[in-house]
Amino acid sequence: MPTVIGLIFLCCSVYFFLFKEEGLLGLLIIACVFEAASAANFGERGIQPYYVVAILIIGRALLNKLLGAKSSKVPSSFKWLVIFGCISVASAFIAPIIFAGIPIYDPKVGIDAGFLIRPPLHLGLNNFVQASFLTVHVAVAFSLLAIKFSPVKTRKAFLAAFYIEVGFIFTEAACQLVGIKFPLSLVLNNPGYGIWTSSLEGYGTRNPGTFSEPSFAGGFVIFYCVSFMAEYFADRQGIFRTILGMLSSALVASTSSIFVLGVAPIALMIRYSPFRMPWYINLRRVKKIAWMSFLIIGPLVAALVLSSGYREILGSATVSKGDTGSFINRTTSDLYGLHLAIVTHGLGVGLGSSRSSSMIATLLSNIGVAGTLSFGIFYFKLFKNVAKSHAWLRWGALAYLLNACMGLPDITMPVFWIPIFIAIALEVQEGLTSKASRKVPLLACDMA
Questions:
Q1: pLDDT digits (tens, 9 = 90+) for 155-212
Q2: Would you list the DSSP string of 244-275?
C-alpha cells in the first residue's frame, strides 16, 4: 500500500527522470534521510523511498544508453566493487545451503534476544532481500556514469538533507522537554525499520530523528559534522554548520558517534596543524583550533554541570556503557560473528544470514574474508582519488566508516552508500573537466 511519503518521492523522481536527470542524485541523498519511512508497505515489510529514487536512476541510465549516450570512463576502483558485489550476492544464496544448521544471530530476532536465541542457519527471505538491496546499490554506482551530474544541485540537496534531519532532531528534543508526544509515526512508518518509541527517550536526548534508532541517526549526523569540520579547518566554510552538527550529535547521544566526535577533531587538528617547522606558525589556524576546542569543551561542561539528567544519559552512553547488558550483548554478537567466520573457513554464512553489532564482524561473518577485503580496497581506493578540494568528503566518509565499525552493521543501509555515490559523481566530473581543459591548449596553439 503506497504512503504519502512514497507518493511524494515517486512524483519527484518521475519529474527528474523525465526533465532534469541531473537532480536525481540530489533527490537520492534527501531520500536516504527517511530510512525508517516507507514508500509502500507489503505486510510486515516496506520499501524505503530511497529505493524508489534508486530504481529510477537506474532506469534513466538505461534509457540514456538506449538513446546512444556515451558513459563516462569506469573508475579503476570499480573492479573491486564488482568483486565485492559478486561475492556478496553469491554468498547470500550458496552459503546458507552449504553451512545449513549453524546457529546464527538472526536479524529478525535481534541482537539482545539473539544472546539467548540462536536459530539454525537456512536460506530465507532476508538473504534475497539483502542481495536485492546490494544489487541496487551497485547498479546505482554504475548508473552514475551514464547520467548527468550537477555539483551545485547535489551540494544543495546534500545540505538540505542535513537540515531536514537536524530539524527533526531538534523538534523531537523540544517536544520531550515541554512534554508533548512527537508523532514519530509520520516518519517511522516502515514496519521493518520503524522500531523506536518515545518511551526510550529522556531529558531531550536519545532522539532518532527520521531513523529507526539513535545509533543510525548518530551515524548520519557524524558524517556531516566531520565533513563540516574538515571544511572549516580547510578555510572553505564557516563554523555554523559544525556547531549545528555537534549539537545534533549531543541530542542523539549515540555511543559510537560521540566517540567519533571526540576523535575526529584531534585528527583534523593534526592534519591541519598550524605549525610548520622550523619556525612558521599559521595564526589563522591557531585561532580555528582554539575556537573548535572551546565549542566542543565549553557546551559539554555546561551541560554536564547544569543538567543532572543529561549527565546521567551521557554517562550511560559512554563511561558506564561497559557495565550495561546492552554492551555485553553487542560484544558477544561481535565475537560470535568472528567465530562464524572461523567455522566457515573464512567464507561466511551468506549476506543477510547473521547480524552482529559492528560492520566488520557482520561483513566477516556474512561474506567472509575475501568479500570484506574487496569492499575495503574499493572503499579506500575510491576516496583516495577524491580531489583535494573535496577532502571534506573523504573525512566524512572515514568518520562514518569508523562509526559503522563500532555500531552500524548494515552494509545495505542507504546512508552508507551516499558518500560513495557522491565520490563517484565527483570523480566522473573531475575526469570530464580535466578532459575538457586538456583541449584548451590545443585550440590555443591552432589559433596561434
A1: 999 999 999 999 999 998 888 888 888 888 888 888 877 566 666 666 678 888 899 8
A2: HHHHHHHHH--HHHHHHHHHHHHHHHHHT-SE
- DSSP class of residue 266? H
Q: Return the closest-CA partner of residue 397 out of 370, 376, 428.
A: 376
Query: Can you tell me whether residue 107 is helix, strand or coil?
Result: coil
Q: How is residue 71 annotated by DSSP? A: P
Residue 436 CB contacts under 8 Å (≥ 6 apart), including other chains: none
Query: What's at 375, amino acid-wise?
Result: F
Tens-place pLDDT, residues 98-149:
999 999 988 877 777 777 788 999 999 999 999 999 999 999 999 999 999 8
Among 160, 118, 180, 113, which Cα is nearest to 326's?
113
pLDDT for residue 314: 59
Contact between 53 and 29 (Cβ < 8 Å): no
**Cα 204 to Cα 178: distance, rounded to the nearest angstrom:** 9
Q: How many residues does the chain have?
A: 448
**Model confidence band, residue 447 (pLDDT cutoffs 50, 70, 90):** very low
> Residue 413: which region, alpha, beta or left (left: phi > 0; alpha: psi -120 to 50)?
beta
Segments in 68-202 forming alpha helices (H) = 78-98, 111-114, 125-143, 151-178
- Among 342, 390, 392, 96, CA closest to 226: 392
Note the pTM of the prediction, 2 decimals.
0.89
Q: Contact 224/245 with Cβ under 8 angstroms?
A: yes
Written as nine digits, the cell of 38 is: 516507507
Element (H, E) at 124: none
The three cell numbers of residue 414 are 542507504
Q: How far is CA 288 from the centre of its chain?
A: 27
> Which DSSP category does 103 fall into?
B
d(CA 124, CA 103): 14
Query: Grid cell 570523480 — which residue?
Result: 427
